[in-house]
Amino acid sequence: MKQKKCKICNNPLPIRFKFFCSSKCRNKFYYIKNKDYNYQWQLNKRNKEAEKPSDKKIKCLICGRWYVQVCSHTVQVHGLDGRRYREYFDLEVKRGVVPQWYRKLKGDQALDNLTYKNLRKGRKYWFVPGDKKAGKYKRSHITLEKLRVLFKTKIKS
How far is residue 101's CA from residue 57's CA, in Å, rounded to a whole number? Predict the structure, then answer.
């Protein structure tokens, strides 16, 4: 007995098709069927790539693997947001943990597609000096040292 409805959407089958009404439904069926296998395959591939040391990547100080965006990795895998990761390992808090080439690439992209203009639009959300909300975090020792050198004064931590 021939099946009369599509396995995915339950629409009537055209005469020449056996199980699915379209290639879209067929692809959806096989995607669902192989979803776990594909996820594991991609995860293994990423982990294998992250094991290789590279001068174009930064090492995660928690697991020792190598990534271009370490803080994205720490959020997804270790459940530690970027600021806490930088504070815990005594890194500069206000600056992301990415390689220099990636920082330059993203800066060039912001100039090309004019997204740097969004900074002006967000100015109304900046902290005003003396605002009580602004003192939520302590400054890192790296930031304090930069300020000391810049202003050539003694700054309290």
Answer: 10
Rounded CA-CA distance 60/85 in Å is: 10
CB 87 within 8 A of CB 133: no
Which pTM was predicted? 0.59
Number of neighbours of residue 80 by Cβ within 10 angstroms: 16
- Give dist(CA 54, CA 99) in Å, integer: 11
> Which superfamily is assigned to 55-116 in CATH?
ROS/MUCR transcriptional regulator protein (1.10.10.1550)
CA distance 14 to 61: 57
Query: Mean pLDDT, consecutive 10-residue segments, the chain of 157 residues?
Result: 81 85 91 92 91 92 93 91 88 84 92 88 77 70 80 64
